[in-house]
Amino acid sequence: MDPAALEMIRSLPLWNGTPEVTVLKGGITNRNFRVVDGGRSYVVRLGDDIPVHHISRQNELAASRAAHAAGISPAVIHHQPGVLVLDHICGRTLTPEDVRSPACLERIVPLVRACHRETGRHYRGGAMIFWAFHVIEDYAATLGDAGSPHAGRLEGLLRRSRQLERAAAPFDIVFGHNDLLAANFLDDGERLWLIDWDYAGYNTPLFDLGGLASNNELGQDQEKWLLEAYFEQPLRDELWRRYQAMKCASLLRETLWSMVSELHSTIDFDYAAYTADNLARFERAYERFQQLEA
């Protein structure tokens, strides 16, 4: 336990006594803690804005409130600069193996659809746009300016990104979560919740669907089922090609995110290994996309 973090948490003006604080594992853009006070449990997230990753904590706060109003995320209890306190949901975070389960996927689809259809209706204030292709361009500039060891790859990766952006058009726009890792789904035994709104903003639904598939390594048959279940209609070849392009973009964005984090993050996490894993998965996905385009 970081003594400064513990002092910060205990000084928050909402406790009835001296709260019990424990570290929650996970979180690679913030630090998370479980706090028990007066018989009630809370999650405290500590994290400042991260401009290099386009993370605004004010946006995260507004998205968290909107997602709770939409019925898909825990309530916001308190906030102040660098601190977000949420209601604690007793449950477990999913694993990629969980997500690949057909029964679990059937529960995830309506949750993602609710995120896209309902959350934006409750969002208050100026909302973010999360455009993966812009993020990729910005990350590449950051890496080039910093003399990243990955700088030699950037020209080729940007060329592919621009090809993918052309191939993924036209675009529908929804309010997206934009970080559908398995660990951002919480199962309380009765229902699923969607948590961690650091990257929330308007985007194409295919980014979330492609990210869900790539982050959790869904098989091709599962991907086709996912698209048909989400859009509630038979899958067309044109949508399949656009989806594959966005899935590649989600993997490329995650790869460059990790490359930038290698340079800038102070959180204890093996970003180099994460970069290598995501780059390899991007290369495999891009090769399959090229086969579709041939």
TrEMBL record:
Pfam families reported in the protein's UniProt record: APH
Organism: Mycoplana dimorpha
Domain Aminoglycoside phosphotransferase: 21-244
Database matches in PANTHER family: CHOLINE/ETHANOALAMINE KINASE, ETHANOLAMINE KINASE
UniProt-listed SUPFAM superfamilies: Protein kinase-like (PK-like) (SSF56112)
Record field: transmembrane: none
Keyword Kinase: yes
InterPro entries per record: Aminoglycoside_PTrfase, Kinase-like_dom_sf
Keywords assigned: Kinase, Transferase
Listed GO MF terms: ethanolamine kinase activity
Name of the featured protein: Thiamine kinase-like enzyme
GO biological process: phosphatidylethanolamine biosynthetic process
